[in-house]
Structure formats: structure tokens, C-alpha cells
Amino acid sequence: MNKKIVVLGGGESGVGAAILAKDKGMDVFLSDYGKIAPHYKQQLIDEGIAWEEGGHDESRILAADEVIKSPGIAPTAPIMVKIAERGIPVISEIEFAGRYTDAKMVCITGSNGKTTTTLLTYHILKNAGINVGLAGNVGSSLALQVAREHHDVYVIELSSFQLENMYEFKANIAVMLNITPDHLDRYDYKMQNYVNAKFRIIRNLTPEDAFIFWQDDPVIQAQLRQVTTEARMYPFSEHLEKDVDAYIDADDELVLNTSHTSLKMPRNHLALHGLHNLYNSMAAGLSACLLDIRKEDIRRALEDFEGVEHRLEYVATVNGVRYINDSKATNVNSCWYALESMPKGVVLILGGKDKGNDYTEIESLVKEKVKAIVCMGKDNAKLLDFFTGKVDAIYDTHSLQDAVDTCAAIAASGDTVLLSPCCASFDLFSSYEDRGRQFKDAVKRLK
């Protein structure tokens, strides 16, 4: 009898998983409690896969042999509780896809910098002529690529949500950029639960595999004292420390050292600027070295990478004021990195759906660099309470257009208007991409 697979969630990962399950001869049903986007519906129709939207057929779902859950569905959702009560195994799309490929896996996680590092690693490998796929939070569904394409290597961005339901899946190179508080509403407001989810990336690593991580992250260091891995360790740091494999030397050159490849290049040749991007470049460079990419290919790709939309993205200069779109900064630590790379004279736009944020992390940088804060959200009370009196001026706005108009009115030539919200976008926008695009449109209207 065919294995009964139920896929929950009709987005990129869910539809990809359903197609792979169909191709493997399984009995597949996809269910989405909300609406499925028209292009995903069409894919399901074209593939002849049974689906539903706007609710769950519980009897059909609870008859599954295995459930593939989209990462955005919380384990506390009513249908998930019923699935757990029945003892039905629940896995992620990444876990499912990993069963059907022997490609090498470069898996990247961290609270901040994941997307940049993933795209940079992919850029290096693709430009070096590797048959490489891009998956996870960026690119196409891993399951769909495994079903319909063939790649020798996959570069995969993994969120804590995706890692939650991974068990047998194995990375060949696991990258941990940093861990700072994020998504605590998903983890019972317990930081350790979030850390445990992140560290699932090192599950199943063997002595032939590699673990690349930021040496100076206190949360990573504390967890490494509690867990063990057989993988070879490749820590990176800003400066040379004991045992680090990537650092900046006394001549301001980036040094990458692995058992496979060693290379040096001037730091000022890196395409990406700022301390956080230095770490992203180190992690991507170490991954490429371990995959035996030629030194000249690594250097060239680190020099010509063009960055990520919505991450410290320059938009325009209007009346001498620079406008920067950092809409991807959906947590406080992301905003810290953005402010760290800015000159003084920042007009900072904050606000959105608060995920249990602690703003003390950016307090000293705000006092040092920010001349005004413009709050932008349905409810700005927490931001107003925290920052009033800590900056010269603070404003309460409830739409993006009002926020941008306010910034334009108070910013002087030489200032920087920085959208780096610290919060999720779902109070006023459909996604951080939607927020970023609307910001760019509003800035262009200022000209």
C-alpha cells in the first residue's frame, strides 16, 4: 500500500514536498488553513495533487503515515496538537528532501546574516562552475529541486523553524553565524529553547564534516560546552585568536586557513562592508575552501558580490540625505549590526510586530549615533516608553508614508535615514520584502 503523506502549508516548501512525494509514488494530500497563492494552486493542479485551503479535513490529515509541516506552522497549532496526540511523525521539507539526494549540503543558520552568507556562498560556488542549488529560506524548495533537477551541492539557509523537525538530515558543512534572542514568542520566551533549535544543525555530523562558527559569540561558546560534535571545527574571529581559522591579520588582510586551502586578500577588497559582513565573508570563504574551490575564484567572488535586497540596501540620496533599506532587520541584533556600520546622524525608523524584543541591546548605539527615532507601527507604546528621553526627538507614526515624510522633514544634509525596524512586518505589511519595497517607493516619491 502506498505511504500516505500529508503536507501542511501550501507555500514554496509545502508544494515542493508534495511534488517530491508524488514523484516517489506516495499518496499525497496538501492542506492549508489559509489561502494558497494562485501560482502554487496551479502547480498542484498541473501535478494532479489533491489539496484544500481555508481549513483542515482532520479525518484525512489524521490518517497520514507521516506529516510534512511547513516551517511557519507553530507546534502549538490545534491541528499539530492533534497530530502529536495520534503519534504521527512530523518532519520538515528539508528532512524529507534529504532522504532522496546524496548531494553535498552546505547549511547556514544564525540569528542574523543567514541570507547574505547563503547567497554569497552560492555566488562563489556558481561562479566557480559548480553545479549548485540554492534552497531553504531563499531560492527554490529543496524538495522540488531534488525531484526535478540534479545538483552536486546545495547551499541551504535554515531558520530555527526549519531545524525543529529535522532528525536524520545531515549537513556536510554546517555554519553557525551567531545566536541572539529572536522568535522567543515561538519558544515559550525561553532563550535556551531557541538555542537548542539552532544547534540541531550539528546533528549527525561525522569526522568528515565541518562546523564553521563565530568564535566570539558567548551563546555559541556556552552551548559548545554542553554539546559535542565529531565534526572538524573551523572558528572565525575578527582578529587572530587561539585556534581560529579565519581572521584579519596585522596587515589588514583577510586570512582563511583550512586543511584544503589557505588564502589571503586585503580586507578593503571585500565587496561587503561592516563588521557583520566581514563575518559573513569569512563563513562563506571557509565553506568554499573546504569544497576545494580555487583561490582565485574565491577571491574574485568575495570582491564582486552585490549584496542582498532589503539588507543595508542603499536606496537614494535626496537633498543630501542617504536612505538605507534594512527591512530584513526583524530583530534587535540585526538593527545593532546596521547601526554599527553607520556614521553619526541617523534618523532611525523602528516598529512593527514585537516578538518579545529587548531594546537595551541597541541603547548605547542609539545614544551614540541616532538623532531621532520615527516609530512606525499599529502600536508603538513599547518603543515610545523605552526610547523617550534617550534620543533628542521621537515621533509616533502609523503608516510608512507618514514615517518617510517625517524623516524627510527632520533629516539634514549629511544624515542617514535608516529603516531597520527590529520587528516583524505583519502589523502593516505582508512581509519584510513588502515593507522594504514600499519604503523604496516612498523614498523615490520624495525626489
Write the layout of secondary structure elements.
Blueprint (H helix, E strand, L loop, with lengths): L3 E5 L3 H12 L3 E6 L5 H10 L2 E4 L4 H4 L4 E4 L8 H9 L3 E2 L1 H6 L5 E6 L4 H14 L4 E5 L5 H7 L4 E5 L2 H4 L9 E4 L14 H8 L11 E5 L3 H7 L7 E8 L6 E3 L4 E5 L4 E5 L8 H16 L4 H10 L8 E6 L2 E5 L6 H9 L5 E5 L9 H10 E7 L4 H7 L5 E5 L2 H11 L5 E4 L12 H15 L1
Parallel strand pairs: 1-2, 1-4, 2-3, 4-5, 6-8, 6-9, 7-8, 9-10, 10-11, 11-12, 16-20, 17-18, 17-20, 18-19
Antiparallel strand pairs: 12-13, 13-14, 15-16
Helix pairs in contact: 1-2, 1-7, 6-11, 6-12, 13-14, 16-17
Whole-number tally of structural domains: 3
Average residue pLDDT: 94
Query: What amount of the residues lies in strands?
Result: 15-25%
Provide the helix percentage.
Answer: 25-40%
User: Can you identify the CATH class of the largest domain?
Assistant: Alpha Beta
Strand element count: 20
CATH homology-level superfamily of the largest domain: Mur-like, catalytic domain
Low-confidence stretches: none
Write the CATH fold name of the largest domain. Answer: UDP-N-acetylmuramoyl-L-alanine:D-glutamate ligase
Largest sheet: 9 strands, mixed
CATH architecture title of the largest domain:
3-Layer(aba) Sandwich
Catalytic activity: UDP-N-acetyl-alpha-D-muramoyl-L-alanine + D-glutamate + ATP = UDP-N-acetyl-alpha-D-muramoyl-L-alanyl-D-glutamate + ADP + phosphate + H(+)
Pfam families: Mur_ligase_C, Mur_ligase_M, MurD-like_N
Binding site for ATP: 110-116
Function: Cell wall formation. Catalyzes the addition of glutamate to the nucleotide precursor UDP-N-acetylmuramoyl-L-alanine (UMA).
